[in-house]
Amino acid sequence: MKKNWLKGTVAAIALIASFGTANAGPNDGGSMVVTYKDDVSTLDPAIGYDWQNWSMIKSLFDSLLDYKPGTTELTTDLAESYTISDDGLTYTFKLRNGVKFHNGREMTADDVKYSLDRVTNPKTQSPGAGFFASVKGFDDASDGSGHLSGVTVIDNNTVKIELSRPDATFLHVLAINFASIVPKEAVEKWGEDFGKHPVGTGAYSLGEWILGQRLVFKKNADYYHAGIPHLDEIIFEVGQEPLVALLRLQNGEVDIAGDGIPPAKFLEVSKDPKYADNIVEGSQLHTGYISLNVKMKPFDDVKVRRAVNMAINKDRIIRMINGRAVVANQPLPPLMPGYDPAYKGFAFDQAAAKALLAEAGHADGFTTELYVANTDPQPRIAQAIQQDLAAIGIKAEIKSLAQSNVIAAGGEDDQAPMIWSGGMAWIADFPDPSNFYGPILGCSGAVQGGWNWSWYCNPELDKMAIEADSMTDPADAAKREAAWKKIFTSIQDEAPWVPIFNEQRFTIRSERLDGPDGIFVDPVHIPVHYDTVFVKDGM
Amino acid sequence: MLSHVIRRLFEAMLILLGITIVTYMLLYLFPADPVRQIAGRSATPETVNNIRHQLGLDLPVYEQYWRYLTSLLQGDFGRSYIQKTEVAQLIWSRLPASLLLMVAAISVELFLGLTMGVISAVKRNSSVDNSLMVVSFVGVSAPQFVVGILLLYVFAVQLGWFPIGGYGDAKHLVLPALTLGLLGSGWYARMMRSSMLNVLEQDFIRTARAKGVSKFRVILRHAVPNALLPIIAMIGIDIGIFMSGIVVVESVFGWPGIGQLAWQAIQRVDIPIIMGVTLVAACSIVIGNFLADIIALFVDPRIKLK
Predict the structure, then answer these.
(1) How far apart are CA A461 and CA A485, in angstroms?
(2) Were both Cys, which of A120, A421, B293, B303 would link to A141 (CB 3.0–4.6 Å)?
(3) pLDDT at A1 over 50
(4) Of the candidates B1, B2, B8, B6, which has an alpha carbon nearest to the alpha carbon of residue B290?
């Protein structure tokens, strides 16, 4: 129903430059091998929140809503249809009939209620509990004194969800992993170990898990969605260094290198005509930026922040990472609704930057610190930024630390004057501009331990954001998008960030695999939409 | 003898207790907050506080340590923050792979190192001796990460003799064992060479030769066993070096042992796992040294107990 503002996004995805093979019609059967460096932590959808388990969980579980493969367009999943009341506060979902959990039991409206109660129960320790804050009863649920009173079972196949405030992002919230539907009996049987014994309704079920070595997903023959999945089996091998994984892929032993192409091998592999058909490029909902802490001198002065924005040569930084990104001039990535293609931002002009700095009373520059995560290529990028700043007289000392330490410094208002966000922030949880505001640019994120590292807090914009998120009527979608556009360009005029680039994603797949290019760089099922991948004829 | 063993065991317990205290304190001085790591970037302050409380991380450090120690004494290593699994289960499932790798690597280093050492000593100051010592020097100095990748590239990717990383049959074991063993073999070659040179100058060797025993037999029957004594003690120390080596080698080769587990845990600030692996590593070093002592006693009865 709320698809209007997503239309532009779909069009954008259609335009994503990709040079993959043509889609030859899906085959059924076969298997594929996917590798990852790290162990899979958990497959509990209420808890799993990392790069590798995100898409795995999506293949084991379903939610009421999902996205069309390869796009950011919302579609129904376990819900067959839904209605939204005029005031935007009541959502009624009609569930699909005859959907079965992997244990054979039929999924009902009680399971929906149980799952939402579970994810917001503090005992579950779900990192995603906060997403459900707009559901009635959330406060009681999250302090353990009650449960989500807004979720009501009408009958076996109907569930009603009442909100305490209008929330235009709510349908997206119901599509994230944390809203996956789980069977109570399996959760209670396994307790804390449910994440190692997941039972869902998804396209695959967990067949085998040898800790530290491999996981095997088996095709769910009872899957409600006819014709999906195509593969009989997916084997995830963990503990594989990205470089070794790439060598194995080139040797025909691996089908998807889950951690991508290692930076050191990127040019060699991407220029090799042998792999031209097997590398798929796609956009992601990511912006890499430098945060300028507005609570620390001299970044409390908007002129200084603007000068820094003008001083950075973004093209050079992109060349340093082998062109794996596009230049950013505003916080939102181009794939996100609310991105303003007409917005020009601050052009690269070091002479003007120097003049502006002099106007702000820093004709001789100043000394500051630039925090950065210590994994390649981040320190190299920080050095480029350092050189650009030196050109206008700013001496920035690089503080290259472990990622968690940089995040910790950003969460204090007096520690990190500048942070290069590379490797840490920010990729959206769901394709809605709201997710790019609250935690990283809004007042709610500008708290100790928060992610608003620039500590920029503009109550007026916060008010506008709340108003935008109250526009739940699908007819207001364009108005809402315009409101967000205004919010983000207003922020950028105040320059709490220096947006540097929007990273592109590159997936390398084996010769055997096929499917539309979009599913190999899926913006939501990151990194690959496992359910729709198939093996080519005779391979 | 028995009292010696008991005393050594008691000392070992004290050392392990000391290690738990030092590691625990070090990890809690670590500036990164594990709760933030668990809660993720979208957590509300309530979620963060709730998790901190449930894990007991809001208690004073000494109280947290006491809790940890009392659980540990009951065999409970705690639960991984990130992997949400019992640490004991994680370590237990990976220990066999690490032990296998370690035994294989010790065999490699002893075989290569001792052979090189004996040949060098016998051919003292010849070009053979010089080349072997250069080889051992390279072995000692080359970073294992580089050696591992190099071996993988040459013998697995180019020649296709071995699988490209992974775990399974004997073929999977060769390259990681070689990478890990090469470092030690350099040390052993140098140790064995000087030890042999020492022995070869002893009177009993000259006597044996004078009695007409063949040179080959003198070396194998008389010189080598005597030269081996200082080496045995070194194997115990070696286990410590291996423990640091497996972190690198297991990661390069995708070998599912505790080294790889430790490396992942360090990156994700998963303190219970880091503690668990450190303890297991410390135990194995203590046990290795202890066994080396005992074996030395049996091999050379001249060593007197005080």
Answers:
(1) 12
(2) A120
(3) no
(4) B8
Structure tokens at B207: 């006597």
CB within 8 A of A434, min separation 6: which ones?
Answer: A168, A169, A465, A468, A469, A484
The closest alpha carbon to B84, from B277, B268, B282, belongs to: B268
> Which positions 263-282 of B are in contact with A (Cβ < 8 Å)?
264, 267-269
CB B164 within 8 A of CB B157: yes
| pTM: predicted TM-score of the whole model, two decimal places | 0.87
Which long-range contacts (C-beta less than 8 Å, at least 24 apart) are formed by B174-178? Answer: B175/B148, B175/B151, B175/B253, B176/B101, B176/B104, B176/B105, B176/B148, B176/B249, B176/B250, B176/B252, B176/B253, B176/B255, B177/B101, B177/B104, B177/B105, B177/B107, B177/B108, B178/B108, B178/B151
> Do A244 and B254 make contact, defined as CB atoms within 8 angstroms?
yes
Instruction: Please give the structure tokens belonging to residue B232.
Output: 């045995």
pLDDT band at B228 (very low <50, low <70, confident <90, very high): confident
d(CA B95, CA B73): 20
* Residues on chain B touching A451 (C-beta within 8 angstroms): 41
Residues 6+ apart with CB under 8 A from A448: A411, A412, A413
Beta bridge partners of A283: A504
Looking at residue B304, what is its pLDDT? 58
End-to-end CA distance of chain A: 41
Q: Does A196 sit within 8 Å of B84, measured CB to CB?
A: yes
Provide the pLDDT confidence category of residue B204 given band limits of 50, 70 and 90.
Answer: confident
Crossing angle of helices B87-122 and B127-141, in 10° steps, is 160
**ipTM entry:** 0.83
Q: B257 to chain A: nearest residue by CA?
A: A212
Q: Backbone phi, then psi, for A16, in 5-degree steps?
A: -55, 125
Contacting residues of A for B165, CB less than 8 Å apart: 240-241, 244, 248
The token pair at B117 is 């050492």
Q: Classify residue B114 as exposed, middle or buried by CB count within 10 Å of its CB (0-12, 13-18, 19+).
A: buried
Cβ proximity of A117 and A143 under 8 Å: no
B38: nearest Cα among B24, B46, B48, B29: B48
Chain B, residues 68-97, CB within 8 A of chain A, namely 79, 82-85, 89-90, 93-94, 97
DSSP assignment of A156-170, as one string? Answer: TTEEEEEBSS--TTH
- Residue A410 near residue A404 (C-beta atoms within 8 A): no
Residues of A within 8 A of B84 (CB-CB) are: 41-42, 44, 47, 192-193, 195-196
Phi and psi for A280 in degrees, rounded to 5? -110, 130
Give the Cα separation of A344 and A328 in Å (integer). Answer: 10
Residues 114-143 of B with CB under 8 A from A: none
